[in-house]
Amino acid sequence: MYPDHTHQPPAERAIELHHPTPLPPAVAVPAPVMQAQPSSVPAVASIVLPDGRIVTGYAISPAQPEPVTVKPAVSRTAVNVALGGIGFLAVCGGLILLTSFIAALTAFITQLITLAAVIFGGWIAVQLFSASGHQSGTTVNIRKATFKRNHFHG
After folding, report:
1. Of 20, 105, 107, 144, which residue is least crowded by CB atoms under 10 Å?
2. What are the φ and ψ backbone dihedral angles of 38, each rounded to 5 degrees?
């Protein structure tokens, strides 16, 4: 693609070949069995690998299985459904109480309005039908009255 800046024609270039070097096959050496005391585990353990290397490390205590959880006598789903039902009933009861409270408040306000109308109507009736002997103002017979300079004269 790009021109070479060598002054040799392409046929005269040197070519290098690289051949892979084969590795010798691995020799399997059985690992020696270490003698351990039957009643105790050594603090540091060593293992000889098949190729002759020795790996030393701390002994790991065997993994303890997780304790088995005891299942409850009633399933969690049943408990959740029961709690949901109790919550639903509580909400329904609250709504019924709220409705009852609103109805009672409406009845109370209606009774107050009726009481005010009765009292005010009674006061008006007393004013209209009271005896004429007790007059709080001037009663004028319009037919006999004369008007002089915007005043009643009777």
Report:
1. 20
2. -70, -25
- How far apart are alpha carbons 132 and 129 in whole angstroms? 9
146 Cβ contact partners less than 8 Å away, ≥ 6 residues apart: 152, 153, 154
Give the whole-angstrom CA distance, residue 100 versus residue 82: 27
Residue 48: count other Cβ atoms within 10 Å of its Cβ: 15
- Closest by CA to 52, choosing from 23, 27, 22, 25, is 27
Q: Which two tokens stand for residue 25?
A: 């096959």
Token pair listed for 89: 């009933």
Q: Which token pair is 44?
A: 């540091």
| Tokens 């039908």 sit on residue | 129
- Beta-carbon contacts of 93 under 8 Å, excluding residues fewer than 6 positions away, are none
Q: Give pLDDT tens digits for 10-41.
A: 555 667 777 777 777 777 777 776 665 555 55
Give the pTM. 0.34
Please report, as a single letter, which amino acid is at residue 73: A
